[in-house]
Amino acid sequence: MQHVSAVREPLVTGGKTYHDVTVDVCRQVEAKPNVRWMAALSVALFFLGIFLYSVYRTLWYGIGEWGLNKTVGWAWDITNFVWWVGIGHAGTLISAVLLLFRQKWRSSINRAAEAMTIFAVICAAMFPVLHMGRPWLAYWVFPLQNTFGSLWANFNSPLLWDVFAISTYFTVSLVFWYTGLVPDFATIRDRAKGPIAKVAYSLLSMGWTGSAKHWSRYETVSLILAGVSTPLVLSVHTIVSMDFATSVVPGWHTTIFPPYFVAGAIFSGFAMVLTLMLITRVVFKLEDYITLEHIALMNKIMMITGSIVGVAYITEFFIAWYSQVEFEQYAFINRATGPYWWAYAAMMTCNVITPQLVWIRKVRYSIPLTFVLSIIVNIGMWFERFVIIVTSLHRDYLPSSWVMFSPTRIDIGIYVGTLGLFFTLFLLFAKFFPVINMAEVKTILKYTVDNGPTYTGVDPHAHAPHQTTTHGVPATAPVNYNKHD
Amino acid sequence: MQESPKYWKGIEELESSPEFVKTALSEFGEFLPMKEAYGTSDATVAPRRDFLKLMGFGIAAATLASCEAPVRKAIPYLNKPEEVDPGIANFYASTYFNGTDYNSVLVKTREGRPIKLEGNPESPITRGGLSARAQASVLNLYDGGRLQHFAIKGQKAATDKVDQEIRTKLAGVTGRIAIVSNTIISPTTKKVIAEFAARYPNTQHVQYDANSSSALLRANGGVLPSYDFSKANVIVSLDADFLGTWLSPVEFAKQYVTNRKVSSTKKTMSRHFQFETALTLTGSNADVRVAAKPSEMGTIALELYNEIAGTGSTQNAKLKKAAAELKAARAAGLVVSGSNNVAVQTLVAAINQALGSAAVDLASPSMLRQGDDARMVQLVNDMNSGAVGAVIFYNANPAYDHPLADKVKTGIAKVPLSISLNDRLDETGSLCYYACPDHNYLESWNDYEPKRGYLSLAQPVISPLFATRQAQDSLLTWAGNPQSYYNYLKASWRGVLTGDFQKAWDAAVHDGVAMGTLSAAAPAPSAPAMSVQQAVSALSAAPKGSGVELALYEKVGIGTGSCEANNPWLQELPDPVSKATWGNYLAVPREMAVTNKWEQGDVVKITANGKSIELPVLIQPGQAKGTVSIAIGYGRESAGKVGDKVGANVYPMAMITANGIQYANTVTLEKTGSQSPIAQTQTHHTIMDRMVQVVQESTLAQYVKNPKEVTEYEKIATPDGLEAPNKVSLWDDYEYKNHHWGMAIDLNSCIGCGSCVIGCQVENNIAVVGKQEVINRREMHWMRIDRYYSSDHHKDEFETKGKLDTYAAMEDPSDNPSVIFQPMMCQHCNHAPCETVCPVLATTHSSEGLNQMTYNRCVGTRYCANNCPYKVRRFNWFSYTSNEKFENVNGHMFTDLGRMVLNPDVTVRARGVMEKCSFCVQRIQLGKLEAKKQKRRPKDGEVVTACAQSCPTEAIVFGDMRDPETRISKLLRREDGERAFHVLDTINVQPNVTYLTKIRNTEKSAFSVEENA
Question: Residue B929 is inside which H or E element, if any?
């Protein structure tokens, strides 16, 4: 029994009751894995295998297994790193910024988006470690107490800032995500039938009872974490961009990088959220929770951030001309017309031109077109990082050192391997964790006193209410707001 | 039974039960649970605690055993040898001569191991310079490809047995005995051969040179003129690469630059014309270079002769100008030719004579080439006809490096007794019945007379590594002389040293050089082989070339391909001009590649003399139209693991004429369709109009007019107007309280020879990475020489053609480009961009201005390399000391034998760390410590980097910039505002390396926009 506003599109369609929400979301967790999920996991595990093999080659033989050379010291590694970190941004933006702005529509997508953030950051974090010549000494980048005398980390180095930025981001995102999961874990715990599931979800739900005190703390913590995360949305990619902006390499040494990178990160993050959501809603039959309206809204954000990025691309060229610095001018001319012109063309097409199609309402509301668009944007954003990193490095100051870069099989293997890692984690998440925040979605099933969700009796397939009464207030007590009774 | 006691200690005593009585008498009243505590005595039962104890011990022991580092025995001296102090290097004078170029050297030894060669400043000939080949020759000592024992048919044999058999067979030889060698400049070795010939009177000694100069000898009546380029103000060279490979390049380079260096007090320069086919090192240093076909060289010589004689009517403007300047210079003019055509050399001699050139000296002729082509060809024929009964090859490999190699091979099979004294089972040695390998020169005593009146000595610096024997000792043994060669040599020198012999001998051994001659009195020069008239008519009648002409040339690193071929340092030394490593290639002019639709790396089949080889194409700017060039010295079959099958052998393509061997031929070329990438260390060749920021040059006229206007200094805009870039900084400057090390590189003196590259590699244990890794652009050289070709397109076309088109066009070098060389290594920036970005402080600034790399702190993020504007940082992509991929090319870091060459003062870098030029910090430390021990400041010139030490032209000056009295401080003061500039000054990294603008003796500079506008 869902309230239908005369003017506003409902955020959840299909006339869902609270109970329906619980059942719809928990179904995936409680049912046996279906064939499609198994097939998807097998593919993901296959790519994870490629990742492990490529990592083995890299660690055993050295970075020489990659295509880097004396002039191009970073290429696919840092491209992938920035790409993954960028993808991670949408999660924080949706969960934190949109929470602060009271954008209720975020509730059905924030869980998956946050999960995506965490897995993307995990994938991203692989690269700073793997790209090191001696990754077993990676802990030296932490300012740990040591026996090396006065030797400590170099606080001038943007790479060190990266370490702090990424680790802070990962920690806060993880805590935020987990906090949101706790009530839903408790729901699953209460519904769990098998002994393993019961124990596992009991541990995961950390004794959540759903008392008013718990909910009050939950709300407070969510708000605080949202407040903490919001600056991170801006800071993480700002700091990542400083890896480039603070250097002397023409094409990197650009003050526009921080805002440009943040916009690009949100851009690519939303594209990735769309890709995942479009699949998830079909596979898990969540069309009523992730509606066309969600898709249209995310498309709009994508278009706006894509346009910001486009303006940034043009500004770089303007500044190169305006500065009259020969090296910078050449760097940009070479970017657009040099041997890597195709990468630049791919970037411009995918990131600036195609998102403009979203102005057309039909495109915005079309699921297949949105899906294609989101993939194109992800490709474009990968090329953006490739263009920035490789085309700037391969022809910098001294023409004697100009080179070309081409990836090896191991380069490609590590990249597609992290996709395997990402999807493995995401599929496991989708199977074992509630992909939609049940507790929060229930708050947006707009109800009135007259016509709110009604408890319609004991569902024989659901757990019996009396089972939970012994534990105090049931976490997901069936609600009966019918005050007329 | 006792009665009950009156007093009792307990109720048990009172009761006195039998059990109590029994236990009361025993020492331990109660049962001790020993058995339970320590288990049963039954050995078949393993108690749990014992099991755990044993297991724990086992695991710990196994872990410890597997963790143990391999035992490396370091045994102290029982009796410390005199002079040898562990950790302190000893230097011994010696001489390098490998049949081609002569260098007087100082051998640096550590704990008895030769580890590096440096130029011997005492030598009046090479004067402290050292060629790349000589630098690298220390590795030949530790070459695993050397034959380590005497052999019969390749099988190990006892020395005595071999000697006995050879002496028996020599005694019974019917027919001639031939000793075949490259040029021998050792007078005492010749004496030994003479003694051998006296014992076996039918002995004939045949010398030949793989890259022959027999025409030059014949045209000058059997002597090789010695040249002094410092006496020449106008130099015209007809295909003579005298700075790179011709006769005595180090000596010539030293002389050449004396007239090329300029300063505010000497504003004159020699003028250098070069007519050549391939773009050589010499041609790229010339003021005027004309590309010409090999078949045109005769005409050029003839026209030049006619011009000098005053009867010329040449249409060639540049030739006319050369002739006019030669005539004006008179005695200060010099013409040299690398041709092996007697007619050309006759005319060149006649020109020099007509000019009265002071630079040509026939009185103390050079000995460096004595090969006689005709005699060698005769010998090859005789071997095949059966007239030769025995042949001894000494430092000669004609089965590889003679155009008639096939006939040499069949000939050796027909000679009953064949002996090889070569150091390995090379192409010739493996065909010989006996192999009696010679010592390496660092294990031998020997003397040399590179120029009449100039003597030089080699002394052993290590006891022989293998069961080899010095060739001279072998010959003496077979000649029946029981004397050792050392005594023989000493005796031979008795006549030449004056005063107390022992004293004089010691001094000569110490200095490595002495004055005097040991050669037989010079016979009056015989009449030249050809008169001038004959030469003129021969050249006038010479047929014009047809088809595609092939010119063969020698590479600076590999030379004629003897033991250099198995030297990985030389294989990886980039060609100074093409920057190609690891193999030869077909150098073609751009026009030919375009016509035939060849891309760089396309494999082409080359056919000449009925023989074919396949080589990849390299588009070479400056290559004469209608010609192709291929380097000799490649395509070895049995040189060793490094050198085998690198490139293709082109010796069989040389032409044998009655006039001698001609290193040119007409060839047919055919594309095969396959690809073979060329390993170049530089793949972008033009300066892209960055002259002002990167490498500056100007003309002599400009320099004479106003030295303050030859260098352009960029300014940056500040609120106070235009300022020098270093006037504005966000950073605090370092304060240097003690030293401030710096370097100055004079681009006018640098000829680009690559000697410093090898010097640096040897000094700093730099790994060799092999062909594939060079193709992957991962060579490890800390010091490189950037080479830029000029382009026909310049910034002034921006307005007319647009920026995009002009930049694209700038990438193409000119067809006959101007060339500029720039040695490039870590610039040791005072505001170093690499230092700020390292997250772990692995690269930091020293209190003496050095940018230091701490290898064991490096985690390998490569951020420093990305942020280095000069791209001088090198990353260890693999473990070059243990990855089997590098076992062949970097073998000297894999074996105990090879590791002896490593410099113990420099760490061998691990996989995954960054490395770069350290300004030879180990040498700086040594210099400072030596001074400290003597309680004084280091003197200028005491601390010299390896590159500065090896530079034959003294282009590199290193020193303390804080001390105003050092050479570098004076130089920088003098050149400040004139020629001194920093590379990429505008980005304000404030390098400690200063370059001095190149000055060309031309009307305009191809690298300067203003001049072209």
Answer: helix B921-933
**Dihedral sign (CA A214, A215, A216, A217):** positive
Q: Which of residues 88-127 of A touch B (CB under 8 A)?
A: none
Query: Chain B interface, mutation test: which of A58, A395, A400, most B Cβ atoms within 10 Å?
Result: A400
Question: Where do the H-state alpha helices sit in B111-158?
Answer: 132-136, 138-141
Distance from CA of B533 to the nearest CA of A (A): 50
Q: Is some CB atom of chain B closer than 8 A to the CB atom of A324? A: no
In whole angstroms, what is the distance from residue B426 CA to residue B403 CA?
A: 16
d(Cα A410, Cα A53) in Å, to the nearest integer?
Answer: 9
Q: Give the domain ranges of chain A.
A: 18-142+170-469
Residue pair B667/B607 in contact (Cβ under 8 Å)? The answer is yes
Beta pairing partners, B205: B179
On whether the CB atoms of residues B951 and B129 are closer than 8 A, the answer is yes
Sign of the torsion angle spanned by Cα atoms B758, B759, B760, B761: positive
Q: How far apart are CA B579 and CA B679, in angstroms?
A: 8
CB contacts of B786 in chain A (<8 Å) are 398, 400
For residues B587 and B618, the answer to whether their CB atoms sit within 8 Å is yes
CA distance A101 to A99: 5
Per-residue pLDDT of chain A (485 residues; tens, 9 = 90+): 455 555 666 677 777 778 888 888 888 888 888 888 899 999 999 999 999 999 999 999 999 999 999 999 999 999 999 999 998 887 788 778 777 777 777 777 788 888 988 999 999 999 999 999 999 999 998 888 777 667 788 899 999 999 999 999 999 989 988 998 999 999 999 988 889 989 999 999 998 998 999 999 998 998 898 888 888 888 888 999 999 999 999 999 989 999 999 999 989 988 988 898 888 888 777 787 788 888 898 899 899 999 999 999 999 999 999 988 889 999 999 999 989 999 999 999 999 999 999 999 999 899 999 999 999 999 999 999 999 999 999 999 999 999 999 999 999 999 999 999 999 999 999 889 988 888 888 877 764 334 444 445 445 554 444 443 334 434 444 444 444 43
Residue A103 has phi, psi (to 5 degrees) of -90, 100
Smallest CA-to-CA distance from A299 within A375, A368, A373 is with A373
Q: Go through the domains of chain B in sequence order and give each one's CATH number.
A: 86-207+368-451+454-516 (3.40.50.740), 224-366 (3.40.228.10), 546-680 (2.40.40.20), 697-1012 (3.30.70.20)
**In chain B, which residue's Cα lies nearest the Cα of A159?**
B839
Size of interface A-B (CB pairs under 8 A): 182
B392 in Cβ contact with B177 (< 8 Å): yes
Residue B247 to residue A345: CA distance in whole angstroms = 55
Q: What angle do CA B234, B240, B244 make, to 5 degrees?
A: 100
Task: Report strand pairing: B288-291 vs B271-276.
Answer: parallel
The token pair at B242 is 């005298």
The residue type of B71 is V
- Phi and psi at residue B897, in whole multiples of 5°? -65, -50
Measure the CA–CA gap between A37 and A41, rounded to whole angstroms: 6
Give the Cα separation of B178 and B386 in Å (integer).
Answer: 12
Token duo for residue B14 = 């009172």
The gap from C-alpha B217 to its chain's centroid, in whole angstroms, comes to 28
User: B145 burial class (0-12, 13-18, 19+ CB within 10 angstroms)?
Assistant: buried
CB B314 within 8 A of CB B303: yes
**Binary contact (B866, A152; C-beta < 8 A):** no
Quick one: which of B683, B653, B636, B633 has its CA closest to B786? B683
* Prediction ipTM score: 0.87
Cα dihedral B669→B675→B676→B681 (10° resolution): 100
Of B683, B788, B859, the CB nearest to A134: B859
